Amino acid sequence: MDDFVHILDHPLIQHKVSLMRDVKTGPKDFRDLLEEISTLMAYEVTRDLPLKDVEIETPICRTTTKVISGKKLAIVPILRAGLGMVDGITKLVPTAKVGHIGLYRDPETLEPVEYYCKLPPDVAERDLIVVDPMLATGGSASAAITFIKRRTCKSIKLMCLIAAPEGVARVRRDHPDVPIFVSALDEKLNEHGYIVPGLGDAGDRLFGTK
Ligand code: PRP
Ligand code: URA
């Protein structure tokens, strides 16, 4: 697509996404797979983290080597389904703080309704990764990014498992400064706003609520 839309289609990710799509996959495997894919995606999403030189002593000699420097990370899951992506990322970046944004999509209007927002106090100084498995109309992700930007956050990335072209276009239009990382770009939305072929309702499959 362009520099702001990254499709992370490593064979391991594609394989695991296919397992998640399967209607026969139950909540435990669905949860485990989402966590595993989140770790694999986080590896790419954090590729541009800045490094700095440090001097250390190995068992052999003193040497200059690299460690991560600069701003710290915060992960912001969009509730509920985004919660399923947090542990997969904190496995790689254990010092990341976690903020939460509660949004649900009104089933009639498909518009996002906010019910919760709690971000780390120093959120404006952190690099943020907003996470949600599904980017359908893009209304939820766009609203979440708007709330976060009100806290003067400037460095924001969006990480989703499956996106519809409509959702990508919406976020690109509303937030052209926010890079989007997805593992699969699907065909379209159906008349109920579900991604086709998609994987159904991510929150319900994750938590077994349907
Ligand atoms: C799902 C999903 C996204 C949203 C995507 O959440 O996890 O947040 O829908 O749709 P959109 O791009 O059209 O806004 P849902 O509203 O079902 O809430 P839940 O996670 O609590 O189930
Ligand atoms: N939310 C979901 O959980 N799945 C979709 O396909 C669309 C919105």
Features:
single chain, 210 residues, alpha/beta, nine-stranded mixed β-sheet, 6 helices, 30% helix, binds 1-O-pyrophosphono-5-O-phosphono-alpha-D-ribofuranose, binds uracil
Question: Can you tell me about this structure?
Answer:
By secondary structure, the chain is an alpha/beta fold. Helices cover 30% and strands 30% of the residues. It is built from six helices and 13 strands. The protein has helices at 11-21, 27-45, 86-90, 139-150, 165-174, 202-207, and strands spanning 5-7, 51-57, 62-68, 73-79, 97-98, 100-105, 112-118, 127-131, 134-135, 156-163, 180-185, 188-189, 195-196. Strands 1, 4, 5, 6, 7, 8, 9, 10 and 11 form a nine-stranded mixed beta sheet that branches. Strands 2-3 form a two-stranded antiparallel sheet. Strands 12-13 form a two-stranded antiparallel sheet. Strand 6 (100-105) and strand 7 (112-118) form a beta hairpin. The mean pLDDT is 95. Bound molecules: 1-O-pyrophosphono-5-O-phosphono-alpha-D-ribofuranose and uracil. Residues 134, 136, 193-195, 198, 201-203 line the site of uracil (URA). The site of uracil has 9 residues, from helix 6.
